[in-house]
Amino acid sequence: MIKKILSLFLILMLAWVGLCPAQTATKKYYLVDGLFFEGMPPCIGSGNVVAYIEHRDDEDHRVTELRLKEGVTLPEDVRRYATPVEEVPGGEALLMSFRGGMGKKWPIGGVVQTLKPGEWVGKPFPAFKVKDTGGREWTNADVAGHPMVLNFWYTGCGPCIREMPELNKWMELFPEVMYLATTFDSAEQIKRIVENRPFRFTQIADELFFFKTFNVSGMPVTILVDKKGIIRHIEEGTGDAKLRFMQDTLKKLAGE
Length: 256
Known about the structure:
The protein is of the alpha/beta class. The protein has helices at 2-15, 91-99, 140-143, 158-173, 187-196, 209-214, 240-255; strands at 29-32, 35-38, 49-56, 62-68, 104-106, 129-131, 137-139, 148-152, 178-182, 202-204, 221-225, 231-236. Helices cover 29% and strands 22% of the residues.
């Protein structure tokens, strides 16, 4: 049964646009409402998107425009995390392509959506009982009275691994926060990455409880919980803007 569940998760991960698949070593920019973002914009997941449109200039600089669903808008407090157009290679030409309604539209009919942040934000974090790689059992009581970060990752997810140094910095900035990371990989499989990268969060390995509870298929996903145990933010994917937004949000939660 576990093998079948893991196989299903792997299939869903490959179908999830904008997370782990098709990542490159160069910076990936997205364009929303005429604003550039390094990585997917904060608060925007692929479930909010009705069309992906690729714009490119004569020098083969590229940007992916995210056409949002009707009624979905880019939050005002997210706009300040945009990358200035002059810092984006080919930015002016790409912006002209956007304003001219040009670009190549990608089909997204086969994209699988499971996690629904809107159904969780503002609600209590569900009851849980899991064990970390050291054998310690964790429940809601162990994090009560502290903000909590829960990060979903796995060893084959390049974006997950690339964001780890930034996540580690949060532990230095906000030491009062409880930091958990969960993966379906075994403790032995994650050992090299956790020790050498490193990744300093408390590791909940070989465990599907959180994955099944939140229906997480694409990674990374990060959940921010306040001191009262209320889910305040869920971020799908990663990138410079998303990480800065989450750090600012975590600062607020730590100060409440």
